[in-house]
Amino acid sequence: MRVVLAEDEVLLREGLCGLLERFGFEVVASVGDAEGLHAAVREHAPDLVLTDIRMPPGHSDEGLRAAVELRRTRPELAVVVLSQYVEHHHAAELLDSAEGRGVGYLLKDRVVDVEEFVGTLRQVVDGGTAVDPQVVRQLLRRRADPLARLSAREREVLSLIAEGHSNASIARRLVVSEAAVGKHVGSILSKLDLPPTDDGNRRVLAVLAFLRGNG
Question: Whole-angstrom Cα distance, residue 36 to residue 29?
Fold first, then answer.
């Protein structure tokens, strides 16, 4: 079973390499960033990718985005994300890819049994799905709250909309241009999945979402 491992922490990467090889996996490449992950997959065509989420250069969600891109172009490739964090953005897209077959999302600090961990990797390579319950809970909570997708500034703008302020009034209060407020409002309506309609005021619908989310 051929594995490409992507992990930016050197000691953890070497430890995982040794662990996998001890259980019969062949680590064909171990890399420390998303660019290296893409290159290694192209070169080695592995059976499994095991990747962290936060890697250079930005240490945000590079590994997760790489996993999503790999699954988009190679849906047959088994991918397991192993991280300390639950990154909501792109996580659902990864888990939905290839109808959820051959994909996993595990949390490092919740792996307590090595043999169970290795068994989970084999399960994913065989087409199974493995998602830590903590990941599931956080993703469901995120999906249940429509406001969770808004930035702090967008929440602030929506709060002022809920108070009845116009875009011009919001611009004066936040000391920004009215055009900037308009962009924030457009982003809010888009993130709340409120498309243009003939019979509904989207600002009112956005306010109702705000009130539900803060009730």
Answer: 9
CA distances from 151 to 32, 102, 157, 208 (A): 30, 32, 10, 18
**103 beta partners:** 79, 129
C-alpha 24/C-alpha 71 separation (Å) is: 24
158-182 pLDDT tens trace? 888 877 788 999 999 999 999 999 9
**H or E element that contains 50:** strand 48-51
- Put residue 99 in one of left, alpha, beta given phi > 0 → left and psi -120 to 50 → alpha: left
Q: What is the pLDDT of residues 109-165, one digit of tens each?
A: 999 999 999 999 999 999 998 888 888 777 766 665 677 778 889 989 988 887 778
Indicate whether this model's pTM tops 0.85: no
Which helix (H) or strand (E) is 152 found in, with range? Answer: helix 152-162
Torsion from C-alpha of 108, 111, 115, 119, nearest 10 degrees? -70
